[in-house]
Amino acid sequence: MFKRFLPILSIMISAAVLTAAEAAPGLFINVRDHGAAGDGVRDDAPAIQKAIDAAAQTGGTVFFPIGKYRICKTLTVPGGKPAPKVAQNWITLRGAGGTGSLLLGDQVDYILRAAPASEKYRYSSGTRIYELTFTSFSRQKRCSGIDASGMLRAYIENCNFLFLERGIHTFHPTRKDSMWILRIANNVFNLNRSWAIDIQRAFDIVIVNNVIEAGRGGIKVGTPGDTADAACNTLRIENNVIEGLSEMKDHYAILGASWVGARIAGNYFEANGGGDIAIIPKDGDGWTRGVTINGNTFAPAKKLRENPEYGPILLQRVMDIQITNNFTTCERLIHGKSNRVMRSINVQGNSLSNPASVLFDGVSPAERAAYEKKINTHKLSRNRLVLDGRMKVGLDTDCGVRIGGNTVSYADAMPQGKDMKAMPGDVVFSRKPEVKDGRVIIGWYCLDGGKSPRWCPISISASESK
After folding, report:
1. Residue after which a domain boundary falls, among 165, 189, 218
2. What CA dihedral angle connects 124, 127, 129 and 135, to 10 degrees?
3. In whole angstroms, what is the distance from residue 146 CA to residue 154 CA?
4. What is the extent of the structural domain holding 421?
5. Contact by Cβ (8 Å): 285, 225
6. Domain total for the chain?
7. What secondary structure, in 3-state letters, does 321-355 show?
8. Which of 230, 274, 316, 458 could form a disulfide with 443 if both were Cys (CB 3.0 to 4.6 A apart)?
9. CB < 8 Å & 24+ apart, contacts of 374-377
């Protein structure tokens, strides 16, 4: 009985396959089939553009076999167009993996960008880019890798960005032009002249498991001073390795401006000459709100470790911050220039290599003198924070840590009324205990507060101190 229906079933399957092929002719396109040579000599841009345009008709994959594809004109992914929900114009560009499929930009600004189809449809609906290597044809005349500004949704994974100006870049001067979703994962950025990742505005960014090394800038999201409020909503920068970036002003491993909701976690930072994390919106920008910095490891460059003010986390105009379980090999975690850190600050569980803050039991006079010199040179804590531009918080500071309604702090001498607005119950410990009338004065207790607080010494018997 079944055998009688086999010919009919075969015809039905063939018709279904034919119908699918006719409906989606661009499902998989090899650039070689459109004339790309991949020899690193001929200009392959026209042939590759034909393959991309063909795939864009229905959405599909453009495949780059192993080869060197010289690009003398920027490749463009077409923008969106009216389409049913089942055909959202997704385009995938896929290489052969490793460094097998190289796109060599020759005197172009970018190797790849999204081009608007019309004013009404400004974005490419979705772009996936996998296992390609973006590099410059000439290291003297470098280009940039991807301009993702016109990509509404972009997934860039398992690619290499080598010897470029910038790796991945977007520029959106207004909120209206912000990207929607951006995923950058498992890529390698090496020996680029400027930022590996430079994102102006985006709604949802995930940057994970990348290696960024030996360039002049790591990850930048937003631009300090661009007057943007919420240059990024929802940002995750996790499990990246950022190391060996050269010293260049304002080119940090991570630079941020106005963010709303961000997590920087599990990253490794080593020997970045320009610094590690700087979230520094300027006056006129929006404040950064809701940031978690957790579980990162910092190994700053020697020059930065020797700077008594340096800490790998620089914060300005931020609020609602959680800084927990990080480790640094320098003496501070929070940079001394951090300021205007407001409301709901939680700093706990961090480990610092901070020999200048050890107890003095067993310390030689020379070591004690070196410590005193360092404290006198820089009285702010190696863990310092600033709240509302006035209150300095941390060890070895003048105003200290507020516990409940009172402050515990450190000073070289008894505080004066002009030095701090004290409250009854505030305690100041002396950095330089002295013996007076047979007693060791170890600090002072505020008996009466107000504009002219009255301080009483806290002391122990000199005999009891032996």
Report:
1. 165
2. 10
3. 11
4. 369-461
5. yes
6. 2
7. EEEECCEECCCCCECCCCEEEEEEEEEECCEECCH
8. 458
9. 374/308, 375/431, 376/412, 377/308
CB 159 within 8 A of CB 181: no
Angle at 394 between CA 389 and CA 395, to 5 degrees: 140
Residue 340 resides in a domain? no
| pLDDT digit string, tens, across residues 247-265 | 888 899 999 999 999 999 9
d(CA 459, CA 452): 22
Confidence grade of residue 244 (pLDDT, cut at 50, 70, 90): very high
The region that residue 385 occupies, defined by phi over 0 for left and psi between -120 and 50 for alpha, beta otherwise, is beta
Decide: residue 189, CB within 10 A, 0-12 exposed, 13-18 middle, 19+ buried.
buried
**Beta-carbon neighbour count of residue 138 at 10 Å?**
12
And the tokens for 284?
Answer: 């006129």
**Nearest-10 Cα torsion for 268, 273, 279, 282:** -170
Query: Which DSSP symbol is given to 246?
Result: P
- Looking at residue 405, its pLDDT comes to 63
| Confidence bin at 416 (pLDDT 50/70/90) | confident
Q: Indicate which CATH number applies to the domain containing 147.
A: 2.160.20.10
C-beta neighbour count of 254 within 10 angstroms = 27
Domain limit, last residue, from 143, 165, 187: 165
Q: Give the sign of the dihedral formed by CA 349, CA 355, CA 357, CA 359.
A: positive
Q: Is residue 424 part of a domain?
A: yes
C-alpha 321/C-alpha 338 separation (Å) is 13
The residues with which 374 forms a beta bridge, in sequence order, are none
And the tokens for 388? 């509302």
Amino acid identity of 173? P
Residue 101 lies in a domain: yes
398 located within any domain: yes
Tokens of 57: 């008709």
* Dist CA 431 CA 287 (whole Å): 36
Q: Which amino acid is at 226?
A: D
